[in-house]
């Protein structure tokens, strides 16, 4: 084994596994996805001996970096102290935190402007004419997402109402209550139906709570879109939260690729690399078309809540205070399809979600989406989605690791 010369960058030979320090708080879903991307690169390209600092102690304690010979560091929680220590010890550092870059330190982070663009396009496609953005005035990533959202709306000839507050850096119940009241007052001033994008999923949950606290229907009167696609938060929301999915897996993969080049002595060409978002993951909080007709809004809300319980059109009409024939005519005029087709659309959307986010067998998915027979569920899904449930699951899982 080649000896390490203090103060010199070490370019690992084929016979030596690089010692790599990963600094991530694994309680965050985004961090876990990044680590999976790093692991995928490591398995397929370069064998490392990686140590996971899953409590991010190295960001403040310089002893972590001096405890052994590290050949590289990837950090999601990069601080000035960490940057200084890596520079002194000549350890290549890749920063994957979504904050302003440190001088000379390569950074990989989401393309926040593109995330804002996707959010605006999502609402425009659903026919909205009124829009709002709820963000943080003291966070650069939030302002970038706002810029993308407003820019895309402007290109389509729309304007946007803004509410931006200071984020204190930590979510507490007291601050949450205060923000919910502030957002509620803002929502009351907006015309409905309105599409509101929040800077992240945490803030989007506050928007949903604020809307419901003043009696506004989500998504019929206020459609709410988050960002980051934090699965736990999105599913805790009621209705479940639509969100712009960043691509933390790809961030981790490219960070590992970049660190490998740096450990080999090559200088990075791009010090601030942006990763394109994946898509908007549509859940019930935006799964609606912007329609001012109260009968249709009530019917859509009922279908969204009960479609997977095996409801029939007569029940929908009763809830919407309309006759079946009247409801059929309004649905075809505003939506271009029947109430029954809307029930099936909501069921298929839920099937898609369960196929992607769970490993449930098809029989269980049929039970959860209102189908008595799994065979009939498969027929309906293939007719509307273009492939069988099994084919759809295999295809989406294959894409997720690319």
CATH superfamily of the largest domain, by name, is Response regulator
Strand order of the largest sheet: 7-6-8-9-10-12
Number of helices: 16
Shape annotation: globular
CATH A-level architecture of the largest domain: 3-Layer(aba) Sandwich
Low-confidence stretches: 1-14
The structural class is alpha/beta
**Taking Cα atoms only, what radius of gyration do you get, to the nearest Å?**
24 Å
Q: Could you tell me how far the N terminus lies from the C terminus, measured between alpha carbons in angstroms?
A: 35 Å
CATH topology of the largest domain: Rossmann fold
Q: Count the strands?
A: 12
Largest sheet: 6 strands, mixed
Folded structure, characterized:
The relative contact order is 0.10. This protein has a 6-stranded mixed beta sheet with strand order 7-6-8-9-10-12, with helices on both faces. A 4-stranded parallel beta sheet has the order 2-1-3-4, with helices on one face. It contains 16 helices and 12 strands. 48% of the residues lie in helices and 13% in strands. Strand 6 (131-136), helix 5 and strand 7 (161-165) form a beta-alpha-beta unit. Helix 4 (112-125) packs across helix 5 (140-155) and helix 10 (294-306) packs parallel to helix 13. By secondary structure, it is of the alpha/beta class. The protein folds into 3 domains: 19-110 and 248-275, Response regulator (Rossmann fold); 112-246, Response regulator (Rossmann fold); 294-400, Arc Repressor Mutant, subunit A (Orthogonal Bundle), CATH 1.10.10.
């Amino acid at each position: 084994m080649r000896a390490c010369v203090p103060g010199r960058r070490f370019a690992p030979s084929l016979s030596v596994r690089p010692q790599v320090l990963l600094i991530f708080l694994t309680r965050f879903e985004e961090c876990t996805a990044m680590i999976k991307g790093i692991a995928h690169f490591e398995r397929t390209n370069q064998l490392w001996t990686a140590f996971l600092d899953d409590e991010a102690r190295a960001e403040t304690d310089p002893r972590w970096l001096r405890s052994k010979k590290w050949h590289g560091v990837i950090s999601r929680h990069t601080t000035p102290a960490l940057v200084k220590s890596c520079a002194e010890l000549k350890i290549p550092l890749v920063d994957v935190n979504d904050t302003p870059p440190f001088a000379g330190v390569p950074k990989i982070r989401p393309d926040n402007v593109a995330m804002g663009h996707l959010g605006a396009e999502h609402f425009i496609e659903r026919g909205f004419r009124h829009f709002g953005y709820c963000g943080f005035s003291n966070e650069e990533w939030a302002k970038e997402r706002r810029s993308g959202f407003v820019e895309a709306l402007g290109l389509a000839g729309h304007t946007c109402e803004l509410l931006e507050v200071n984020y204190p850096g930590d979510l507490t119940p007291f601050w949450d209550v205060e923000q919910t009241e502030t957002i509620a007052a803002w929502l009351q001033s907006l015309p409905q139906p309105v599409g509101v994008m929040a800077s992240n999923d945490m803030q989007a949950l506050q928007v949903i709570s604020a809307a419901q606290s003043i009696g506004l229907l989500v998504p019929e009167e206020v459609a709410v879109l988050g960002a980051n696609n934090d699965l736990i938060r999105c599913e805790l929301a009621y209705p479940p939260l639509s969100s712009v999915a960043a691509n933390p897996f790809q961030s981790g993969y490219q960070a590992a690729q970049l660190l490998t080049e740096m450990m080999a002595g090559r200088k990075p060409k791009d010090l601030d690399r942006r990763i394109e978002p994946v898509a908007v993951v549509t859940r019930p909080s935006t799964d609606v078309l912007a329609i001012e007709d109260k009968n249709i809004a009530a019917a859509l809300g009922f279908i969204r809540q009960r479609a997977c319980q095996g409801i029939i059109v007569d029940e929908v009409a009763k809830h919407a205070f309309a006759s079946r024939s009247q409801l059929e005519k309004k649905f075809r005029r505003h939506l271009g399809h029947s109430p029954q087709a809307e029930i099936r659309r909501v069921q298929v959307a839920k099937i898609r979600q369960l196929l992607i986010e769970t490993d449930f067998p098809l029989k269980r998915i049929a039970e959860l989406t209102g189908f008595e027979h799994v065979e009939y569920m498969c027929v309906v899904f293939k007719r509307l989605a273009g492939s069988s449930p099994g084919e759809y699951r295999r295809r989406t899982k294959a894409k997720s690791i690319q």
